[in-house]
Sequence to fold (225 residues):
Amino acid sequence: MWILVIGREGLEERDGSAVACLHQLGCEVQTANLWDRLDTEELVKNPPTVVLVEAGDEGDAGRAALVRVRSAEPLHEVPVIIGVTVSAVTRLDPGDGFDDFVLMPYVPAELYSRIRRVEWSRSDFAQQERIKMGPLCIDLAAHEVTVDGRSRQLTHQEFALLSFLCQNRGRVFSRRQLLERVWGVDYYGSSRTVDIHVRRLRMKLGPTVNNLETVRGVGYKMKEP
Fold:
């Protein structure tokens, strides 16, 4: 694997730097300055396995680098880790577009495990356990829903209903069908239960579930994005 490390000048020269740690771990490394433009032509030919943004205490520079990374088309599907000091952890915002963070100074074993974790999270196998619709991500294995990387708390049945509709996008289901498929054939409650859960999903997830359509006189369907 090869890692793109974005940080301050002199990355290769500092003891304990990400570059030194990654070389110890046998990774191929290329570097870029926090404020430099990325060479997208080269990245198209050979995108990195992971991008590591070494922000340290420089929050503004780190955020600016994250914006450039996420706006570079060859890096849209590449996982990004941000390296920060302990004092900067509380200022991290998941909405800035990173997949994970690692503390500086680095511990090589921890850095390696973080890289492997985000690499796996973007793998084909992991994608089979995730449903993505724009900013909405449903992690079936972790039983978690996120919007733009921010976790949203759903009840068990809300999660089950959302997952079922997203897994069957484009199909219309009556309220009775949804009760049987999501709540189970032994459920004898009112079909209004479905309406209540749909309303709660819309309240909790807002515009991200605009594709959840009410089909008058029939039931509900999740339209293709």
Observations:
- The longest strand covers residues 50-56.
- The chain has two domains: 2-124, 130-222.
